[in-house]
Design goal:
The complex is a heterodimer of chains A (about 325) and B (about 550). Chain A has about 325 residues and is an alpha+beta fold. Chain A folds into three domains: about 1-45 and about 60-95; about 100-210, Sandwich (Immunoglobulin-like); about 215-330, Cytochrome Bc1 Complex, Chain D, domain 2 (Orthogonal Bundle), CATH 1.10.760. Chain A has helices at about 1-10, 15-50, 65-95, 200-210, 215-225, 265-270, 295-305, and strands at about 100-110, 110-115, 120-125, 125-130, 135-140, 145-150, 155-160, 165-170, 175-180, 195-200, 250-255, 260. Chain A starts with a helix and ends in a 26-residue tail after the last helix. With about 550 residues, chain B is an all-alpha fold. Chain B has a single domain (about 20-535), classed as Cytochrome c oxidase-like, subunit I domain (Cytochrome C Oxidase, Chain A). Helix content of chain B is about 70%, strand content about 0%. The longest helix of chain B is centred in the N-terminal third of the chain and has 36 residues, at about 60-95. Chain B is globular, with a radius of gyration of 23 Å. The chains are: A alpha+beta (about 325), B mainly alpha (about 550). At the A-B interface, helix 1, helix 2, helix 3, strand 7 and strand 9 of A face helix 3, helix 5, helix 11, helix 12 and helix 13 of B.
């Protein structure tokens, strides 16, 4: 019996997984019904109407047009029903609004790097608290990968040059596998890892113990100073550069007349490919940092810029940007 | 023995390789794609052997990745796409419409040469080291990162695409202009309708594939930033372009199968096909709607939620014409006179396997379910049910059905029935466990896998062994029957259709006099009534 449950019924580790399974099994029931019906009809015909049998073959007086319309409309209605159900779950699963807990994931051939806002960093493992909505913010350093969490019935391609988000709420403590689902080269099948879902207090303990790093935002703040970003991005600068406080999530008017939301991808592009989108009213003066910063460092900068808010209150906000220009911006060595 | 297309112009090298006879070109295609099928099949066999154990211990990861690329590229472009259109279509289209040849016989021969040139380049790229991108050539892996002979293989595929376009153009022109007097559109056999729909896709979709492959080459060779974001490109652009071709290409790989099954079922039920017009229009609407559903390959690609919803809806709509066909075939059986000859076993097997393939397609069109099973073995199982369970079953059914016409010989019936059953059983044992593997979460294109998946993988590998045995049977008895089989009469199945009114095998010029068509197709009641009145008269 254990073999059966392990090999036929996959683990469900989130409410979404249960809902997807419910839809899946309903679809399965409809499909099995159709297969049985067709098998029965075909077998019946083969036996009863085998060549030379004495079965009655006087043509039926049926309106074939009505029959055709019936078996066009009826499956059509069933299909629309299934479509709507699947779409509803899909939309609910895609709550891209910021969630309470964010974890950054950087994919590269052939490993997953997980970075927590508190500064912890690990490879091919993802620790999560139970019962809290999680948002994974992911990007790739090279080719397309795909984070696949079968126990959550969740999957999202991870693309280079773009931040994608995946949200879910684990509701079962335990260790579950995750895989790379998009073929990415030689060791694609070795690009696997484990999600470890923990009780909230265990998770808090895990986050702090053995953590040698500053918070991700602080690491970003350090880079912000080191790279001289603060030289232009401060109120009294002689260079006309946009101020970054509170910019995250804002609607930015562009030179081209379009608008773009200042999300992770926008911030990343502004650092690495500044000429791609020019904010309206600014000269294209920003130099590219493509050769000086890697994706991992950009990730820290993004978290720092997200933490630069005008109002206090966020957990990251003990770290206010120091007055620009002062080298003491990094208290740590 | 009467002179036929096989003997009339001699058996010399030039008489075959410079022939403009559509029937001889069909034979050239038959032999070439059989070789490609064997190459692709050996790759599949090696992969299944590797997957019998969880560890990657038979071949290295790099070899495994080359094997599945080889399998996909060869089977899609050098077996499935040309299979029914270029072998059976080439042979039968002029015969079914009472023509002497296709509209452009030289173009037809050129299409074979172009096909072989592309095929040889592709094989060459395999011999000198292979390609490890998968048949989908996803960027930026293929354009920047892959360390293998991507350009050479892509060139092979690019060139073979012209062969598809030539054939498509040729078929469209032939069907429009060369039908026999009296053969209106609704007196065409449904096989011709399916070839017509297929040709539309071949002509309209293949150029997009060519453009896409050229762009990959530009980026890989010239460093032009098109798909790689590191040089300013967009990796999703590739997926849109690729699937804009490759989803319609899926219908290139199944519509001709619909056509074959629509010929076989009425013949072995001795009944007019049910819902002729609905089946014909279903083919055309699949060809049209097939162009609008490419985005369902991209539900987890970071395509917008709105796009996902639209593509999901359209994908459900394209399932309706397929359902209509299945219902019409089943109804055709009702009150028939059914004989389970080899072609009929293949046709019924097709209905069963295509139904499962189609229904699991609905799972994949369902957004929330697809997010889970996308890029897992569920997808692998689904498209093999369509392409192998559907198209290969139909192809083999068609080969058996028209074998007497093509060769003038009968194949051994008992052996034919037996191998059809072995293939059906072997196929299900190979691919059904893969649905379970996919739902359990085993990703595709994995060289090594976690141990909990082993049991189902062993079942699948065992099934593949049976399937291979099933395929070897016809490979043995069909060529043998060509030399030793009993002579076939003109119309061994008492089938309707112009191709059965001429000698088996036909003469080079097909028809002695231009036939006229004055009746609907599949009028089996009339045919059998005439036959029985003749037997009454004879004594």
């Amino acid at each position: 019996m254990r073999f059966l449950t392990a090999s036929i019924l996959p683990v469900e580790a989130s409410e979404h997984a249960t809902r997807v399974d419910y839809l899946f099994y309903s679809l399965l029931a409809v499909s099995i019904g159709i297969v049985i019906l067709l098998t029965f009809l075909i077998t019946y015909c083969i036996i009863r109407y085998r060549a030379g049998s004495s079965a009655d073959r006087t043509p039926l007086k049926i309106d074939s047009r009505k029959l055709e319309i019936t078996w066009t409309i009826l499956p059509g209605l069933i299909f629309i029903g299934i479509f709507a159900w699947g779409a509803k779950l899909y939309i609910e699963g895609d709550q891209s609004a910021p969630r309470s807990d964010t974890v950054y994931i950087l994919a590269r051939q052939w490993m997953w790097e997980t970075r927590y806002p508190d500064g912890r960093r690990e490879h091919n493992r993802l620790h999560l608290p139970i019962g809290r909505p999680i948002q994974l913010l992911m990007t790739s350093e090279d080719v397309i990968h795909s984070l696949y969490l079968p126990s959550m019935r969740m999957k999202q391609d991870v693309l280079p040059g773009k931040y994608v988000s995946l949200s879910f709420t684990p509701d079962k403590v335990g260790t579950f596998p995750f895989y790379c689902a998009e073929y990415c080269g030689t060791k694609h099948s070795a690009m696997i890892g484990e999600v470890i879902v923990m009780a909230p207090q265990d998770y808090q303990k895990w986050l702090t113990e053995g953590n040698q790093n500053q918070s991700l935002a602080k690491q970003g703040g350090k880079l912000f100073a080191e790279m001289g970003c603060a030289g232009c991005h401060f109120p009294g600068s002689s260079v006309h550069a946009p101020l970054l406080e509170g910019i995250y999530g804002k609607n930015i008017p562009l030179d081209s007349g379009e608008f773009v939301t200042a999300d992770e991808t926008y911030i990343r592009d502004s650092i690495l490919l500044p000429l791609k989108q020019i904010a309206a009213g600014y000269e294209p003066l920003m130099p590219t940092y493509e050769s000086q910063l890697n994706e991992s460092q950009v990730m820290a900068l993004i978290e720092y810029i997200k933490s630069m808010k005008n109002d206090a209150g966020s957990s990251h906000l003990e770290l206010r940007p120091n007055p620009p220009g002062t080298k003491s911006a990094n208290p740590d060595p | 023995m009467n002179e036929s297309y096989l003997t009339e112009s001699g058996m010399g090298f030039r008489s075959w390789f410079l022939t403009r006879d559509h029937k001889r070109i069909a034979i050239l295609y038959l032999i070439s794609i059989t070789i490609f099928f064997l190459i692709g099949g050996v790759a599949a066999g090696l992969m299944r052997s590797e997957l019998a154990t969880p560890k990657g211990d038979l071949v290295t990861s790099d070899t495994y990745n080359r094997l599945f690329t080889l399998h996909g590229v060869v089977m899609v472009w050098f077996f499935l796409i040309p299979s029914i259109p270029n072998v059976l279509g080439n042979f039968l289209l002029p015969l079914m419409i009472g023509a002497k040849d296709l509209a452009f016989p030289r173009l037809n021969l050129a299409s074979w040469y172009v096909f072989m040139f592309g095929g040889i380049l592709t094989l060459w790229s395999i011999v000198i080291g292979g390609v490890d991108t998968g048949w989908t050539f996803y960027t930026p892996y293929s354009s920047t990162y892959a360390n293998s002979h991507v350009i050479l293989m892509a060139t092979g595929v690019f060139i073979s695409g012209f062969s598809s376009i030539f054939t498509g153009l040729n078929f469209i022109a032939t069907i429009h202009k060369m039908r026999a007097p009296g053969q209106t559109w609704f007196r065409l056999p449904l096989f011709v309708w399916s070839l017509y729909s297929t040709s539309i896709i071949l002509v309209l979709a293949t150029p997009v594939l060519a453009v896409t492959l050229v762009l990959v080459a530009l980026e890989r060779l010239g460093g032009v930033g098109i798909f790689d974001p590191a040089i300013g490109g967009d990796p999703l652009l590739f997926q849109h372009l690729f699937w804009f071709y490759s989803h319609p290409a899926v219908y290139i790989m199944i519509l001709p199968g619909f056509g074959v099954v629509s010929e076989i079922i009425p013949c072995f039920s001795r009944k007019r096909i049910f819902g002729y017009r609905f089946i014909a229009f279903a083919s055309v609407s699949i060809a049209v709607l097939g162009f609008l559903v490419w985005g369902h390959h991209m539900f987890v690609s970071s395509q917008s939620v709105f796009a996902g919803i639209v593509f999901s809806f359209l994908s459900f709509m394209v399932a309706i014409p397929s359902a209509i066909k299945v219902f019409n075939w089943t109804t055709t059986l009702y009150k028939g006179q059914i004989t389970l000859s080899t072609p009929m076993i293949y046709a019924l097997g097709f209905i069963g396997l295509f139904t499962i393939g189609g229904l699991t397609g609905l799972f994949l069109a369902t957004l929330a379910v697809d997010v889970h099973v996308h890029d897992t073995y569920f997808v692998v199982a689904h498209f093999h049910y369509i392409m192998v369970g559907g198209m290969v079953m139909a192809y083999l059914g068609g080969i058996h059905y028209w074998w007497p016409k093509i060769t003038g010989r009968m194949y051994p019936e008992k052996l034919g029935q037996l191998s059809a059953l072995i293939i059906f059983v072997g196929f299900n044992l190979t691919f059904f466990p893969q649905f379970l593997l996919g739902y359990l979460g085993m990703p595709r294109r994995y060289h090594a896998y976690p141990e909990q998946f082993q049991m189902l993988n062993i079942l699948s590998t065992a099934g593949a062994t049976i399937l291979a045995v099933g395929y070897l049977f016809p490979l043995y008895y069909l060529p043998r029957s060509f030399f030793r089989g009993p002579k076939a009469p003109q119309n061994p199945w008492r089938a309707t259709g112009l191709e059965w009114t001429i000698a088996s095998p036909p003469s080079s010029h097909n028809f002695e006099v231009v036939p006229t068509v004055d009746d609907e197709p599949y009028n089996y009641l009339k045919m059998d009534a005439v036959a029985s009145s003749e037997t009454e008269v004879t004594p």
